[in-house]
């Protein structure tokens, strides 16, 4: 083995600026008239993805189905519509049946795991709103082959299009009633409503099911944040038709592929309270509890409180999606009588997970994109393990890297 104390291959790892490359393809979903699984896959097909490949994927898993998109002109616009057809009668399937089909699909581990997790979430939502155990759930939507195609197809499509982030517009609120196996239910359907919790909505006068349970599931599973529009350089856009007759308004979902600017502005929430009634052990335990609830960061600054009591400022940062859970955890774990909170902007650099190759093995890390290039940052735990396996400390490794950069290695 080469003596790393004399020479270290640093260029792909630290402080290496290159020509600006792709920071990953981003997807923005615009859904003024809602979303369903069919609409999403149709729009992905309109972007140029051959969704017909899904037919063979499901045939290999034992499900005979033909899947394709077709350009259709409606209301003066041309967009794609998804068709899912089967020559055989599809049986009513339960969650375990769908999980078995997913396990037999010739797709990546990411697609399998994500699809399985999403369908479990849909089953759990139906079980909760109807007051039954998950294994007792019997309803058409989760047994339909359409739902299976929509869910697996969505994750497969995102992977095929190399999408690394998804944002979405606010969601239209709708009214009316829907007939299903449980009778006539008010809209949004109970499972849809469950999956729409913590999502931003605005009022409309539509009396149709604009967002289906599968559509709500996709929003809950793939969307990273809700925003007014994409921020970056627009690449492609497409539309997928829905099945609702909304009069003069086209029932269509629009997708936009884009690359991000070198920095991003997003909304975050800062929650804080003065703490003078917890022990050191209880304060130490707070951090993991809050991170488990979805906190982005947790900070504690010791100080002197009223009546000269030792205490401190507990500050927690959360995104909008995790705000409710983080706030509840804050109250439950501290028993504070009040929390100060404010919405703020946070500017972040686009980044993605990477594995960096060296002559001695791979290091995990993040590739961060700046206006004039990109920088690769290995994870500290991997650097620590990397250094220890060569008899070095991380400090020694850092100095060796600096020596190499200065031309002394």
Q: What percent strand? A: 25-35%
Number of domains: 3
Characterize the biggest β-sheet.
5 strands, mixed
Unreliable stretches (pLDDT < 50, length at least 5) are 1-23
Q: How would you describe the shape? A: globular
Computed Rg: 25 Å
End-to-end distance: 17 Å
- Helicity range of the residues? 25-40%
Run of helices and strands = EHHEEHHHHEEEEHEHEEEEHEEHEEEEHH
Strand order across the largest sheet: 9-4-1-11-10
The assigned structural class equals alpha+beta
What is the average per-residue confidence, as pLDDT, rounded to a whole number? 84
Work out the number of β strands. Answer: 18
| Number of DSSP helical runs | 12
Description:
There is one protein chain. The protein is α+β, with helices and mostly antiparallel strands. The protein folds into 3 domains: 1-20 and 349-409, no CATH class; 25-260, no CATH class; 264-348, Transcriptional regulatory protein pf0864 domain like (Alpha-Beta Plaits, 2-Layer Sandwich), CATH 3.30.70. The protein has 12 helices and 18 strands. The two termini are 17 Å apart.
Summarize the structure.
The chain is built from 12 helices and 18 strands. It is an alpha+beta fold.
Task: Offer a few descriptive terms.
globular, Alpha-Beta Plaits, alpha+beta, disordered N terminus, 409 residues, five-stranded mixed β-sheet
